[in-house]
Write a structure and sequence with these properties.
This protein starts with a helix and ends in a 15-residue tail after the last helix. It has 459 residues and is of the alpha+beta class. It contains 15 helices and 18 strands. Helix 1 packs antiparallel against helix 3, helix 8 crosses helix 10 and helix 13 runs antiparallel to helix 14. The protein is globular, with a radius of gyration of 22 Å.
Length: 459
């Protein structure tokens, strides 16, 4: 980029919303993964029209653009691999329309996920997707990665709540996709193509999301186990008993101890694993479902099963799950977090396989995750300065992904492919699958200027 390019960016966004000094752009060169690369400029959008003008300019001058929310992604999806321009969306945080009668809210893509519920709760509604990064991730970023979260088992993931979106295409055209109606089949499911597209096909600026009524009652419980296998089998048995908990989280001993050292959440240090389980809905139904949960776990040698007696006790238990990643980050200098996912019935095999892989490579791994939907977060605790340990970890990760595929699962349940998992995507979808993705990318972005280098190569 040259001075004329910078001048044009300043004309579009205003001088105060354009960064070009290297020290000012450091924070926009990485996300929560291990990938990093410096941009040549950072711009902060405040309107859809600005985004459109940016893309027209970028296409004319053949400059790469990488969209970014809060940079909380875990796969390198918002890292500017090609340099160019980082387009930051987190100043676009307005509520466009709240429509409680139709249980819809339209927001700008830079809105923080957790900021929705305080607004819609006034009408006894809530937004179900609940990623671990809920307090700082943006709606646009959630959609780009199809974020999941703790409530995914019962309520689904981000894609299940996206009704409409305003999108700026790579050459600057502005389109509105989807519909507010419960049912619509007027054309292709275009909004669905953009969910999980990692900012490679277009830039979402406004999104209409579905909402649900707040459940009347919650029942929360902690199940403590002396073996990983018993905890994992309990997950399958609970589902087989006809219960769909709103949340069912798995935490192993390494993660339990890391959490307790980080902040006291009342978890037992000597347990091999715990399940945090919640049922919700009409009060009698939620209580009855939790009784079925207890029956199922008691068939699997549960050491202790206790229900939260108050909202404060419930919040304490679940706060432990939410700080799991931060807690594990304090154990060793570095960590590598994955999110391999398998069908729920294969969860016991996946857990035992992860433990075996870590042991074979002499690695420490903490396992936690959304067990109810088969989504685990094996977290390898390492020192990246140790070349031998790093080599063993890379091999273990490769085996971990292959294990997930062999168990009819996926290499990513909610973190996306980005940079980190790009080498493994072909193992799951094959060469023809990669070619299909390339063809779609070429249709939207023939010059490969929007978030290039992610997910797959274009050659």
């Amino acid at each position: 980029m040259n001075r004329n390019h910078i001048t044009e960016l300043e004309t579009i966004f205003g001088q105060e919303l354009v960064l070009t000094e290297p020290e000012d752009m450091i924070a926009y060169s990485y996300d929560a993964s291990h990938a990093e690369n410096s941009p040549e400029a950072v711009v902060f959008a405040t309107t859809t029209q600005q985004v459109s003008e940016l893309m027209k300019f970028a296409y004319r001058e053949h400059i790469a653009v990488t969209p970014r929310g809060q940079g909380s992604g875990l796969s390198g999806g918002s890292v500017p691999l090609a340099g160019g321009i980082v387009l930051t969306m987190d100043k676009m945080q307005s509520i466009i329309e709240f429509d409680p009668a139709n249980r819809l809210i339209t927001v700008e893509a830079g809105m923080t996920t957790s900021d929705i519920d305080p607004v819609v709760a006034e009408e006894n509604l809530f937004y179900p997707p609940d990623p671990g990064s809920v307090t700082f991730s943006t709606i646009g970023g959630n959609i780009a990665e199809n974020a999941g979260g703790l409530r995914g088992l019962k309520y689904g993931v981000t894609k299940d709540y996206v009704k409409m979106m305003k999108v700026v295409l790579p050459r600057g055209e502005i389109v509105t996709l989807g519909n507010k109606c419960v049912k619509h089949v007027a054309g292709f499911n275009m909004e669905g193509i953009f969910v999980g597209s990692e900012g490679m096909l277009g830039i979402m600026t406004e999104v209409t999301l579905a909402l649900l009524p707040i459940p009347e009652h919650h029942e929360s419980a902690l199940a403590i186990f002396d073996t990983l296998e018993s905890a994992a089998q309990s997950v399958s048995d609970i589902i087989a008993a006809g219960v769909t908990p709103s949340t069912m989280e798995f935490i192993d001993n390494i993660t339990i101890n890391a959490i307790q050292n980080f902040q006291d959440c009342g978890l037992p240090l000597d347990a091999e694993a715990v399940l945090l389980i919640e049922t919700d809905g009409e009060k009698h139904s939620a209580i009855l479902e939790m009784a079925k949960v207890e029956t199922a776990v008691r068939k699997n040698n549960v050491r202790e099963f206790s229900r939260a007696e108050s909202a404060k006790e419930r919040d304490l238990l679940f706060s432990g799950r939410r700080v799991a990643l931060n807690a594990l980050a304090n154990v060793k200098p570095n960590l590598i977090l994955e999110d391999a996912t398998v069908p729920r019935s294969r969860l016991p095999e996946m857990v035992s396989g992860i433990v075996k892989i870590a042991a074979e490579h002499d690695l420490q791994v903490g396992i936690f995750g959304h067990a109810g939907d088969g989504n685990l977060h094996p977290t390898f605790l390492i020192d990246m300065q140790d070349a031998d340990e790093m080599a063993r970890t890379e091999k273990a990760v490769e085996e971990l992904f292959q294990l997930a595929i062999d168990l009819e699962g996926t290499i990513s349940g909610e973190h996306g492919i980005g940079v980190e998992k790009k080498p493994f995507l072909k193992n799951q979808i094959g060469a023809e699958g990669i070619r299909l993705l390339q063809d779609i990318k070429k249709t939207f972005d023939p010059e490969n200027l929007l978030n290039p280098g992610k997910m797959f190569d274009m050659d």
